[in-house]
Amino acid sequence: MDATDVVIAGAGPTGLMLACELRILGLEVTILDALPARTGESRAGGMHARTMEILDQRGMLDGMLAQGRPLQVGHFAGIPLDFSDFPTRYPFTLVIPQSLIETELENRAKELGATVAWDSPVLGFRQDGSEVEVEVGGAQGIRRLRAAYLVGCDGGRSTVRRLAGIAFAGTDATMTGMLADVELAEPPAQPFFSHRRGAGDFSVVQLQPGWYRLLVQRHDRVLGRGTELSFADFRANFREIAGEDFGMHSPRWVSHYGDAARQAGRYRAGRVFLAGDAAHIHYPAGGQGLNLGVQDAVNLGWKLAAVLRADAPGSLLDTYQAERHPVAARVLHNTRAQTALGRSGPHTDALRDIMSELITSDEIRHRLGLMITALDIRYATGCDHPLAGRRIPDADLVTAAGPARVHELLRPARPLLLRLAGTEPLDTDWNRHVEVVTARSHASRWTIPGVGDIPTPATVLIRPDGYTAWATDHPEADGLAELLRDWTDAVAAQTY
């Protein structure tokens, strides 16, 4: 029986990102996917700022930036949201098909040594206190894999979730969205727009030169799960709502979706975890789904590695659900709200008019936009510094080795102790667990999304996923030695 550290079910963006995280930290990873090969379907079409920051932290963003197209707006229920003044290096939506994201992530995962096995559906598993045994099917016959952990990244109809007996409660679909990736004989002048008409709304997004995604939402019908949607059906529905079809032809992908919203009651069952769509599904309003899954993976990956490498106690893994379940619940909440704002009729029209006026306020625009982009996430910590629990800004620094950005210092995926007050590192033995860098920040103040400007801290302890575990403005860094001693002794998971 073959053995590995972690088995990942699902070779989509979530599973691939998790594999990259684990391989960077030296763990053995096998990815299983039930499909015979990658479909090449474009699927999700965008990436938000926080996901771009995370990929930049691992040196994996440049290839995607080169293939995507920046769009400095997002939307809330089709009402435009300007992202251009958000405090990030990436104040835009990157329009890029999921198929290209998957190719980049798969190439990186394989470079790092991950194994991707197609035609390998998970048929079952059993677990005890020390391992999971996974039963795998496919054309090559039934085989078994032993691993310390199994992570289900296998989509909204997750086999792993079902086998683990984890409830997936929520609300059923009340409407239908349809999309097609096509070429247009008569393309519109705008590369992105959305309009409401009659019983629904329609949108046009230019994905790449000559290639467009057309969407139509209908609030007067619900297509059942598994219903086939032909290109002719899509074109007829689009024309009915939009009044024209822009000469659409040569479809690459046609699909439909609803506004069902469900979330796993728990993200962990012993040695089995859920991430991405296996843990939560929702209406794709604002393009949050792929981003949410990738961020799940990065939150879970370093924690699995820390426990498997005996750098942290097993209780650290409980923080995965504690941190990520509320984030997904918020996404389900805001996508339900966006569905309601998309309905037809004079009452919704009046509400949209008011919302459109409110969004012109910077305070409202920032609040909604930072939520959609996930730049405002704050995890609970035992530290009261305004930066604690928030993502670390990608500040420009000067180190002994020369200029560097914070994201570049996070490339090894290890905890980072950043000392910015010009003092030498403390004389204690924590370097086995923490990267220590003494540096000077170019800026005397950092801008924190949803908070504003704060003085550049004197010392910051940064988690591998780029969130701040602890910070202080005092050059003496009172309490740091004790904090690091606890971390080194692997007895205080909350410091992670």
TrEMBL record:
Signal sequence residues: none
Molecular function GO terms recorded: FAD binding; oxidoreductase activity, acting on paired donors, with incorporation or reduction of molecular oxygen, NAD(P)H as one donor, and incorporation of one atom of oxygen
Cofactor: FAD
Domain FAD-binding, chain residue ranges per copy: 4-334
Keywords of this entry: FAD, Flavoprotein
PANTHER family assigned: BINDING MONOOXYGENASE, PUTATIVE (JCVI)-RELATED, TRK SYSTEM POTASSIUM UPTAKE PROTEIN
Name of the featured protein: 3-(3-hydroxy-phenyl)propionate hydroxylase
Organism: Nocardia bhagyanarayanae
